[in-house]
């Protein structure tokens, strides 16, 4: 027996938090009866519907994708642009991205049909560290690098402390390649941080997500996470969210 919101999340319909909202709105039925009790437990033989659509419990799947530039981090796009889900033509389960990468940003992105897992990783206060490599205009001074590490004031508040490392610089072209590790998940955060110190991003790639890297994966390709990797990610999220 499992809590109904957990079953809905594991079916890939919504995160657990969204599932709780749907329950409270009276949009969930169990065996034909509307349920508004969040703690209710259901078994494998119970018939669950969300907004009239039967919940079919799927086996959870977890993928690591090397997202190319020019692809939307979404399940669908009203402008007809290619989405990350389009890169999984032979996966029949209803997967969706954990968080997002900008259209013009490449790199490591996780996809799953486990809403509970996705929700834990995207906890708004304690997100897992993500490492980016950015090619930017200009060559930063030591003070600007320290500013990135201490936190940069953006329109939605100061960023949390980060790790910044100079990889290389081209004095002739006046460009730099900088590695930046953050644990927040604000919209276009890395690009905005560099813009705030007067160094616009030319190219951006997410190299790592926690302990996961792109090693062995080509642009546009993906691989399944191992059970051990999934367990490690769960433990990281649980430890951070305590």
UniProtKB/TrEMBL annotation:
Signal peptide: none annotated. Its EC number is 5.4.99.-. SMART domains: S4. GO terms for molecular function: RNA binding; rRNA pseudouridine synthase activity. One of its GO terms (biological process) is enzyme-directed rRNA pseudouridine synthesis. One of its GO terms (cellular component) is cytosol. It is an enzyme of class 5 (isomerase). The keyword Isomerase applies. Belongs to the pseudouridine synthase RsuA family. This is Pseudouridine synthase. It comes from Pradoshia eiseniae.
């Amino acid at each position: 027996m499992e809590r109904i919101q957990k079953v809905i999340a594991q079916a890939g319909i919504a995160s657990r938090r969204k599932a709780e909202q749907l329950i409270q709105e009276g949009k969930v039925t169990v065996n034909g009866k509307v349920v508004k009790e969040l703690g209710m437990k259901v078994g494998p033989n119970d018939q669950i519907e969300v907004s009239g659509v039967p919940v079919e419990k799927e086996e959870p799947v977890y993928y690591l994708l090397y997202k190319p530039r020019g692809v939307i981090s979404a399940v669908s796009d009203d402008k007809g642009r290619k989405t990350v889900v389009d890169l999984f033509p032979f996966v029949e389960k209803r997967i969706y991205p954990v968080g997002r990468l900008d259209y013009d940003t490449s790199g490591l992105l996780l996809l799953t049909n486990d809403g509970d897992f996705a929700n834990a990783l995207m906890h708004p206060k304690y997100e897992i560290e993500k490492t980016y490599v950015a090619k930017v205009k200009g060559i930063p001074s030591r003070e600007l690098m320290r500013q990135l590490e201490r936190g940069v004031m953006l329109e939605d508040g100061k960023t949390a402390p980060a790790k910044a490392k100079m990889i290389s610089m081209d004095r002739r072209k006046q460009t730099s390649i900088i590695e930046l590790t953050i644990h927040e998940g604000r919209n276009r955060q890395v690009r905005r941080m560099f813009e705030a110190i007067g160094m616009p991003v030319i190219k951006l790639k997410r190299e790592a997500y926690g302990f996961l890297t792109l090693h062995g994966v080509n642009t546009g390709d993906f691989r399944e996470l191992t059970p051990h990797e999934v367990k490690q990610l769960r433990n990281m999220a649980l430890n951070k969210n305590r």
